[in-house]
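Task: fold both queries, return tokens.
Query 1:
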Amino acid sequence: MSDNSTNDSWRKNALCKKYKDIDFFSEDIFSIRKSLNICKQCVVAVECLKHSIEQKEAYGIWGCSTQRERRRIIKSKTKLSDRELKQIVLKNGNNVLS
């Protein structure tokens, strides 16, 4: 996996780009669930999660994670390996990476 802090090429394969009608930044539980269901099928969920943690994304659904989940990771100041990030994405239901 490449260093996403300088390389955002993963974005072109992000499944969420195909869903213009879904608000990935809504706090409505229905929108959150729809967003997470899309993430669960995305091939770049790990890269997306890594990016969101590196950029300290405070809002929205990123890499099969909610803002609350990312906040815990960011506050812990623990540098997670790509393997650990993949485990988070898989635990959160991504079914295309296993």
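Query 1 returned. Query 2:
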Amino acid sequence: MLNRDACFAAFRNNNWVAIKGPNLEGKWPGQTGANAHSFARFDDPAYSVRSFIELIRHYQDRHNTRSAAEIMKRYSPPGDCSGAPSVRLHGGAQALAE
């Protein structure tokens, strides 16, 4: 079950994909800050989607992730307590690969 407060925080922060900052000091384009759990806050939700696409491209280029299962396993790994939507709620990335 998704955490209701985390869902509302995503909308309040214009961060529809629950993306965190790229590193401790960096910012995504359009990022105006972060909450206590390091989730980025954006001026507009479009910036969060743009950042997510940039992150996925990074995964493909540097980590050779090609399938949705590989991408989701890297984006929200088992044991990640971020509250981000995750395939582990539905049986994990392995279930996607089957």
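Both queries returned. Flag for query 2: Residues 86-98 have pLDDT under 50 and may be disordered.
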